[in-house]
Amino acid sequence: MSVTSADRRPALSSHGAQTLPSVEVDSYNLTLKDDEGFIGDKASRGAFHAMLEKWREPLRELGADPLGEQDSEQLSKKQLDKLLAEGDPAAGGVIHSAVEEFAQTLTTVIRRFLRAANWRNTEAIVVGGGMRGSRVGELAVGRTQMLLQAAGIDVKLELIQHHPDEAGLIGSAHLMPSWMLEGYDGILAVDIGGTNIRAGIVELRLKKAKDLSKANVFASDIWRHGDENTKRDEAVQRIADMLEEHIRIAEKKDLKLAPLVGIACPGLIREDGTIETGAQNLPGNWESSQFNLADQLCSLIPNIGDHSTHIVIHNDAVVQGLSALPIMQSYDHWGVLTIGTGLGNARFSMRNGKP
Fold it and tell me: Is the overall model pTM greater than 0.85, yes or no?
């Protein structure tokens, strides 16, 4: 029997797949430790706040804290950026001190990752997550790049191109083989975090760029589940409600959706869609072998348009990293670090690159 070109097309990726349409996922959700605990915790948003608090403490004792009375963890990115740009020199000095300490720590963390077997020969690292969306975070990354160069470490740091909130949705389109997207205007995507869940429509814009470099978030909504005492089943129903609302939005805007949903989720994702580890910050027990998010959502939303719903789940750092694929084409081996509640991580090799 002859094999047609359609038969040779790559199938829809399994959940948490190592082989994706454009890349091999060499590693993700890597949990490195030292004598003090998890390495990634040292370069998290909470770690930066702790550093900022440390630099403020002696000034508080003198009654001269230029950052005011708010605790460091309560200071928003916008507030810190404004203090850095418009505050008095003492405020800028405190923030720059914390940025320097964080950059020193991030440099040490990156060097540790680069020694891991699956991270060797990494040429570039995309930096995303919540700190990416601030001038303070950008300065920390820029300083880290200088420290790496000074140490003779030849790895390029790239700031993630899209806003982190949008990158976690846009990357879902890269989970799907290109032929499954042909003829459609967009797909549904979900980004599940320890505090927020975001759902939306990724507009593919394939006529402008086949490589998805022009893809954007057409519409999205966010639910701060961390502010509520939410149970797991309630969270699943809320996600389904958000997706159905975006299906209605697409219909009103005459946007043809592919029958696909890409989901970014914390943790180690098994092939069947269950979560092995790393989902401890989500509402309820998401690591139970009896819980399958994809199956539950498909039962709640059995069809999108005239076709059965298909769902692909992958790790949130993997998905956020995939959003940068169009700008990472010059690298054969590259990684992503997402600085947020923890330090998300993934390492990729281009499928058409060197072995």
Answer: yes
pLDDT digits (tens, 9 = 90+) for 230-275: 899 999 999 999 999 999 999 999 999 999 999 999 999 999 999 9
User: Measured between alpha carbons, how far is residue 311 from residues 18, 193, 264, 328 in Å?
Assistant: 16, 18, 11, 26
- Please report where in the chains the tokens 């059965």 appear, as a residue: 308
Angle subtended by helix axes 135-150 and 77-86, to nearest 10: 80
129, 164 contact by CB (below 8 A): yes
Cβ count near 352 (within 10 Å): 9
Taking the C-alpha atoms of residue 209 and residue 291, their distance in angstroms, rounded to an integer, is 38
Residue 10 has pLDDT above 50, yes or no: no
User: Quick one: pLDDT band at residue 341, thresholds 50, 70, 90?
Assistant: confident
First to last CA, the chain: 33
